[in-house]
Design a protein that fits this description.
Number of helices: 11
Strand content: 15-25%
Structural class: alpha+beta
Shape: globular
Order of helices and strands: EEHEEHHHEEEEEEHEHHHHHH
Radius of gyration: 23 Å
Mean pLDDT: 78
Strand order of the largest sheet: 10-9-8-5-11
Distance between the termini: 31 Å
Amino acid sequence: MDYSTQAHSTHSCVQCGEAATSVCAACRDSPEDAWSDHKLHCKALAARKTLYRAADTAQALFYVFREIAFDKLVTKVERVEGQIRLFEGLYQDEVLVPFPNSLITDANEKKAVLSYLSCSDTCGYMDVLLKTMLGGISSKFTEISFKLKAQHPLKLRMIDMLKEDTNDYQHDVLKVRLKDGSSYVIDLAGAQYGHNVPVMQYDKYLKTMARDTSSPIEWPFGLQRAQAVRRCAPQIAIDPRYTHNIDIPKANEQLYQTFNRFLDSWQKTKMPLKTMLKLQLTEYLNNQQHLAESARTVLQGAADKHLARIKAQKPPHGLPKAPSPVPMPDLKTRERKFEEDYAESLRSALAKGHRVFDISGMDF
């Protein structure tokens, strides 16, 4: 961005009130203070603008990705006393299933359901997108986990085999530190808690969203990406469904690769994402909508082809019926396994030559 001054201004000087002899080429304003001070201030404002637009764009694309990669077999929806109760059917050999648009017609409810239990996907599948958009303005990017407060009385509950899921889950978000030292939280999946704002100052997020701020779990950026790869190996699958149908994480991984190829192609044929973030508001929103619609078309085509290949490989009688669901362990056991899996994912990723990045490109 050009921070030089431009002459022939129609602005008034904020110091003396006379016609300004020059204005900032970046913000089109006449600096109140010395040019050197204004330049630093203007750069910080530009970085925050980029951050907010990048998070907004990433959230829009995350919803597109999640809808194409939707794998929850919702067969019934009830709304009782402020709760949305999602009834989950019996899984056989389903891989990706259509989003139940006929059951969920409200836009905010749809965002909540798309993000339900999908916070890890924001780290695992949106990593390249976020690094591309934020690489020039940030100095550190980490994954962090909290337990959150519900922001409204609307609650999501998954009813699996007539048993309600009452687990108190951790919520994964991204913490980004800008080059001016300020820190923010990018929460693309907060809609499940009634929180639709994709970015917030870190301290404000702790105060308004986090239930317990004493010991948040923080990890290098890249661990959820390693976990996504690791879930494709059936012997170490975490979700009991993946034990029966390894095609689910494989389909997500296929879509992830397609999504990143699409982003690369879009930037070469249309414009770099960083350029899009700097456009005038109307032009930026139009290009963001075009980007999301194009991503949907490409991902849907890839999903259809992937499912067709799976179907062609099935024996005539179909896949064996899934065994009974594996009993879920208690919360403390799940939390301990959660921490062990993170550590093992990092060791496994490094041992296999996978690279784990922070936003500045430094290896861990």
